[in-house]
Design brief:
Strand content: under 5%
Helix content: over 70%
Order of helices and strands: HHHHH
Oligomer: single chain
Radius of gyration: 30 Å
């Protein structure tokens, strides 16, 4: 009788080992797939965050530039300048992950220069302000 049971037990044992291996391999592959999806999702979120941040910065820059072009007198655009510079400073207080350091440095330098201008420097240096805004706009339009 034990001779009849041994092949059955061997067969069942092989089946259990095979099932265990299948479960472990499936689990490993599922975890790998989830990690890849998560990494891809994180990368997309990072790129979307950079694009959104650049769009916000570009919006402030383009708005102020348009005010300067439309204005007949410095008093027409200076209040917008003050508000816009504060907004630029707020936006550059925290850079999104994924923005290259060279661009961060260039943007920070320009925003710091704009923020440090006195009212007299800004009004009398309207062309300099416009040039800095143009440069900022170019930095926000460059590929992320």
């Amino acid at each position: 009788m034990s001779e009849d049971v041994t092949p059955i037990i061997t067969h069942l044992g092989s089946g259990l080992v095979g099932a265990l291996i299948t479960i472990l391999v499936t689990h490993y592959l599922t975890k790998s797939r989830e990690k890849e999806k998560s990494a891809a999702s994180d990368s997309k979120e990072r790129l979307d965050g950079v694009a959104r941040w650049l769009r916000d910065l570009r919006g402030v820059t383009a708005g102020l530039k348009a005010e300067i072009v439309r204005a007949e007198l410095p008093s027409d655009w200076y209040p917008s300048f003050e508000a816009s510079v504060i907004e630029l400073r707020r936006l550059t207080a925290i850079f999104p992950t994924g923005l290259d350091s060279k661009r961060k440095d260039e943007i920070t330098t320009i925003v710091d220069r704009l923020f440090g201008m006195t009212s007299s420097e800004a009004v009398h240096g309207v062309q300099q302000v416009a040039d800095m805004l143009e440069t900022l706009e170019g930095l926000t339009n460059a590929a992320s």
